[in-house]
């Protein structure tokens, strides 16, 4: 069935002539042939969790012309509520707006079944039906979202950064906003080429609008520091010092993710301390590199960590030289151990006592020697009484400790000697060392 009418806009001031045409429009009355369901935005059946979407039902004739839908038609549009939270729907059911709330596959259905004419409902037989399969995915998330790496105009370091994409369907495509600075493989491996900032994007293959990005900056260093941490170590053991460095991006300090490829110089002041040649990747948050020092004998030393570079603008001008330095005081101590008896075991007769001599452990911190503590405790029971014995000044080395042990009951127990400095502004992370000595 097909009807054609013409609607003409008329009025006392609207008169047709050869020069002026009265506004008119053709009105086609046609039978509906089929329905279609579209998705906004992007008209893609792969949806992203928690993002707003609209389902639009349209009615078409046999020539696929879209038919105007008045409010009095009745379309039953169903989006399963376990997957989709409907926030708005038009009276005639042709428009549904809301948010996906669960991942998975489901189907949106629409049925044009009737038309309201006054108080009557005229059934459409057979009703027109349409369906649209959809799949809802988690949003794509790229990790890590930010990587900041230092540039040196002399060594021109190159880096490899592994990015991962979670969420989506598991199949993503990778792209870089500037391949002159960073290129990225389809496995998410980024390789730097020079100085600059880029955005690396991972987009879901089935729905490129489900995507996320990571920022990679390769910039020159403007600041260097040593992170707070332990600065006391046994003689001949490696002491790691955690290096921090940062750049400025849009006048905001950005810490480097890694800076172990910078030519860092490590210089202990005391000759009994030396620096190891390798600069290691970071292992703690806030650090970008690790340098290590080792001592051949007990003592203290100031350690300077420095970075020197020209800016690359004018290598001959002293105005463009960069010198960054950070320093800290480190300490080395002998291992805490018994020297008399050296076996680590003491045998006492009931009621007898003896001195147990220990050596080693952290030394008194020079800027606050009063924070140094030595404590002795006894294991379970009252079999042994133990106390520290202090010799007169000048007779006892700084790392020698005397403990008097007295047998009160028969049996076996332990005495535990603990040597440390208490935390202070000069030494916020002191090392605590213990030794457990057996007493029978």
Automatic annotation (TrEMBL):
GO terms for cellular component: nuclear pore. Residues 47-115 form the NUP210 fourth Ig-like domain. Pfam families: Ig_NUP210_4th (PF24991), Ig_NUP210_5th (PF26182), Ig_NUP210_6th (PF24935), Ig_NUP210_7th (PF22962). Transmembrane segments: none annotated. SUPFAM superfamilies: Invasin/intimin cell-adhesion fragments. Residues 225-308, 339-432 form the NUP210 Ig-like domain. InterPro entries: Ig_NUP210_4th, Ig_NUP210_6th, Ig_NUP210_7th, Invasin/intimin_cell_adhesion, NUP210-like. This is Nuclear pore membrane glycoprotein 210. It comes from Portunus trituberculatus. The gene is Nup210_2.
């Amino acid at each position: 069935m097909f009807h054609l009418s013409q609607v003409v806009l008329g009025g006392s001031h609207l008169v047709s002539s050869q020069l002026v045409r009265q506004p008119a429009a053709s009105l086609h009355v046609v039978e509906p042939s089929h329905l279609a369901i579209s998705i906004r935005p992007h008209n893609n059946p792969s949806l992203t969790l928690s993002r707003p979407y609209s389902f639009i039902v349209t009615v078409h004739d046999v020539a696929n012309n879209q038919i105007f839908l008045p409010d009095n038609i009745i379309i039953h549009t169903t989006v399963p509520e376990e997957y989709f939270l409907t926030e708005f729907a038009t009276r005639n059911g042709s428009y549904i707006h809301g948010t996906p709330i669960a991942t998975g596959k489901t189907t949106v259905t629409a049925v044009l079944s009737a038309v309201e004419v006054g108080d009557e409902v005229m059934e459409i037989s057979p009703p027109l039906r349409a369906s649209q399969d959809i799949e809802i995915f988690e949003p794509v998330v790229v990790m890590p979202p930010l990587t900041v790496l230092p540039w040196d105009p002399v060594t021109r370091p190159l880096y490899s950064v592994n990015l991962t994409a979670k969420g989506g369907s598991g199949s993503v495509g990778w792209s870089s906003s500037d391949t002159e600075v960073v290129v990225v493989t389809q496995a998410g491996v980024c390789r730097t080429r020079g100085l600059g900032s880029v955005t690396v994007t991972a987009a879901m293959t089935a729905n490129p609008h489900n995507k996320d990005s990571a920022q990679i900056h390769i910039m020159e260093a403007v600041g260097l520091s040593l992170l707070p941490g332990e600065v006391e170590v046994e003689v001949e053991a490696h002491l790691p010092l955690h290096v921090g460095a940062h750049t400025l991006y849009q006048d905001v300090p950005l810490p480097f993710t890694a800076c172990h490829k910078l030519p860092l110089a490590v210089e202990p002041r005391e000759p009994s301390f030396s620096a190891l040649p390798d600069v290691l990747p970071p292992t703690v948050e806030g650090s970008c590199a690790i340098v290590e020092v080792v001592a051949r004998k007990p003592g203290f030393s100031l350690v300077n960590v420095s970075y020197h570079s020209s800016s690359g603008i004018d290598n001959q001008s002293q105005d463009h030289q960069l010198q960054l330095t950070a320093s800290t005081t480190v300490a080395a101590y002998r291992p805490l151990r018994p020297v008399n008896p050296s076996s680590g075991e003491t045998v006492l007769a009931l009621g007898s006592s003896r001195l147990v001599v220990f050596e080693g452990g952290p030394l008194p911190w020079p800027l606050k020697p009063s924070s140094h503590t030595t404590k002795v405790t006894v294991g379970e029971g009252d079999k042994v009484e133990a106390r520290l014995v202090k010799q007169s000044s000048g007779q006892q080395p700084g790392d020698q400790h005397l403990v008097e042990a007295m047998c009160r009951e028969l049996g076996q127990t332990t005495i535990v000697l603990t040597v440390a400095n208490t935390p202070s502004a000069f030494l916020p992370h002191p090392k605590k060392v213990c030794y457990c000595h057996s007493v029978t």
